[in-house]
Amino acid sequence: MPETERDLSQVDLESLWHPMTQHSQLASSPPLFIESASGSFLYDRHGRRWLDAVSGLWCVNVGHGRAELAEVAREQMEKLDYLPATLSHEPGVLLARKILDLLGFDGRVYFAVTGSEANEAAFKIARQYHRQTPGGAGRYKIIGRHRGYHGNTMGALSATGQEERRQGYEPFVPGFLHVEAPDPYRSDVDCAAALEAAILAEGAESVAAFIMEPVIAGGGVLVPPPEYLPRVREICDRHGVLLILDEVVTGFGRTGRWFGHHHWGVEPDIMTLAKGIASGYMPLSATVVRREIFDAFSAEPGGLEHFRHINTYGGHPVATAVARRNLEIIEREGLVERAAEKGRSLLEALRRRLDHPQVGDVRGLGLLIGIELVRDRATREPLSVEDTARVVKRCAQEGVIVGRTINTAPSFSNVLIVAPPFTLSDDEAELLVGTIEAALAKELGASLPG
Ligand SMILES: Cc1ncc(COP(=O)(O)O)c(C=O)c1O
Asked: Are 61 and 253 in contact, with CB atoms under 8 Å apart?
C-alpha cells in the first residue's frame, strides 16, 4: 500500500467514528478506502473497482460521477450560497412545485436535510394538526411497524421497529407504538386488521397517525400484498388517523414508479422524502402534506397556529438546485421506466440463477430487491448472521458491494439487499448476479442440481 494511503488509514483508525461498526475489528479489517466513483462503480486509488449494488445507501439513483450535477452545484454556490428557508429562492420554489406536480398532489412541501428530520417534522405536523382541528385535541399517538425504519433521531427512532437499532437507547419518546408489518414469505397474519385492532385498543381519539414505508427497505425488503395499503388507507380514514408514508427510500423511482404508493393507488396525508431526491449528491429531504393539513395551520397572525419548526440547512439553495437537475435527468433519461424494466429482469435472473438450498426467497419491487437466506428451505429458519456476513464479504472481495439486514428483528440478519443505480447496464447486472451466485457456492456450498 502506498505510504499516503497507509497514513490515511492510520489517521482514520485514530480519528473517525464509523456508523454501525465495531471498531475493534477495523485494525485487521479496515473499511474500503474509496477515492472516486463513476456510473455504477466505486474506485480506489489503484484503479481497483467495486460495483456499487446498493447505490451508496440506496440513494445514488442516477449513478455516480455526473459532472452535470457538480456544475449546477458550482453555479448555484457562486450565485447564492445560502439562504434560510424563511426567505425564498428560485431552486427551492421550483423544486417544491416539481415534487407536487410529480405527485399529482395539492399540498405543500417542507424541506429539511435528512430522512430522520423529515419524519420528525411529519410527527410534529400530525400532532399539531390534530390539536388545531375540532375534536382532535386528544390525538398524539403515532403507530409504527415492527421492522420499519424511520431514522436515528429520538422521535424517528421511537417510530422505528428494529430491535438492534433501539436497544440501549431507551427510554423512547412517549406515545409511540408498533404493529406487525406484512411479511408474505413468513406469515399470513392480517396486518391491516392488526392495525385497526391497535387503533381501537388505544382508543381512536388518542391516535394521531400511522407511519409506514410502502415497501419496508432496511428491515428486509418486505413487499406488502396488494390489498394491504388500500385497506390501511380505509382504516385510517374510518378512525380519523393520518397516514404518513415514509418514502425516503421508495421515492423518486426506486420501485419502478415515481413514488412507492403509486403502485397501490392510495394517497397519503403526509409523505416524507429524501435519498433519491438529489441522488445523494447533496443532503436534502422533504415532508409533503395534503392541502387540508396545511390549511389547519392558517390563522390570524400573532398566535401559535403556524408550524414552529426550522432546520438551518433545510431547502438549501445548492441542494435544491442539484435536486431539480437530478429530477430532470431522471425524466430525460426515462430512469423510472428503466428501474421498472431492469428491476423485473434482475429479479427474474436472481430467482432463476440463485437456485441454492440456502436461498429461501427472492423478492422486490423495481430496483429494490431482497434475497432471504435460510438454513433450511423447508423450515425457513434464518441463516446465521455470521454465514450471511461471509456471503456479503465474499461479494465485496470479488468486487461487488451488496447490503444486508442487521438484526432488524432478533435473529433476522439474513436478507441480502440489492438496490443498484437505475443506470445499471446488462453487463453490470450479469456481474452482480454471477458474483452473488459464486459467493453463495463458495461460502455455503454447491447449488441445487439442475
Ligand atoms: C425508510 C427510511 N426512513 C428514514 C431514514 C432516515 O434517513 P436519514 O438517514 O437520512 O436520516 C432511512 C435511512 O435509511 C430510511 O431507510
From this structure: yes
CA 82 to centroid of ligand 1, rounded, Å: 25
pTM more than 0.85: yes
How many angstroms is it from 416 CA to the middle of ligand 1? Answer: 18
For the Cβ of 55 lying below 6 angstroms from any atom of ligand 1, the answer is no
Ligand 1 centre to CA of 272 (Å) is: 10
Q: What is the CATH number of the domain that holds 315?
A: 3.40.640.10
Are both 283 and 414 inside the same structural domain? Answer: no
Of 298, 332, 366, the domain-final residue: 332
Residue pLDDT, tens place only, 193-247: 999 999 999 999 999 999 999 999 999 999 999 999 999 999 999 999 999 999 9
Exposure string for 407-443, b = 16+ CB within 10 A, e = fewer = ebbeebbbbbbbbbbbbbeeebbebbbebbbebbeeb
**How is residue 69 written as a grid cell?**
450535477
Distance CA 61, CA 75 (A): 22
Going by alpha carbons, the residue nearest to atom 3 of ligand 1 is: 150
Identify the helix (H) or strand (E) that includes residue 13. Answer: helix 3-15
DSSP structural state of residue 167 = T
Mean pLDDT, all residues of the chain: 96
Residue 151 CA, ligand 1 centroid: distance in Å: 5
Q: Is the CB of 249 within 6 Å of ligand 1?
A: yes
Q: Is the CB of 361 under 6 A from ligand 1?
A: no
**Minimal-distance CA residue to ligand 1 atom 7:** 115
DSSP state of 206: G
Looking at residue 450, its pLDDT comes to 47
Does 152 map to a domain? Answer: yes
The CA 175 to ligand 1 mean position distance, Å, reads 21
Residue 215 DSSP label: S
